[in-house]
Design goal:
alpha+beta, 3 strands, elongated
Length: 102
């Protein structure tokens, strides 16, 4: 292992769930150790997997950062659209006849 990269995220901006999803997505090229400090910071130590070149690792780090943002925005959109999704699902299932009539 030639080198590691340490990233710091603010929990007010990025959820640990988004970081975990990004780590899972990039696990073919890098290993991510995640640490919460209890003061609103998330520390990530990224290290290359065996056989990954320096250029490959640099690319994987860039992709990890992009994926963290991607997953964070997906979580935000999911929360913002949840009431509308629930309304649509409620309307869809209310017309199926699956509910017993009173």
């Amino acid at each position: 292992m030639s080198h590691c990269v340490r990233l710091t995220f603010d929990e007010r901006l990025v959820s640990p769930e988004a970081i975990q999803k990004a780590a899972y997505r990039g696990m073919s090229s890098l290993t991510v150790d995640i640490e919460l400090n209890g003061e609103g910071r998330v520390f990530c130590t990224l290290s290359p997997n065996l056989g990954v070149s320096d250029e490959g690792f640099a690319y994987a780090v860039q992709e990890f950062k992009k994926n963290v943002l991607d997953y964070q925005l997906r979580l935000k959109i999911k929360l913002e659209t949840e009431p509308v999704r629930n309304l649509i699902l409620g309307l869809a299932f209310s017309r199926t006849g699956l509910q017993g009539s009173e």
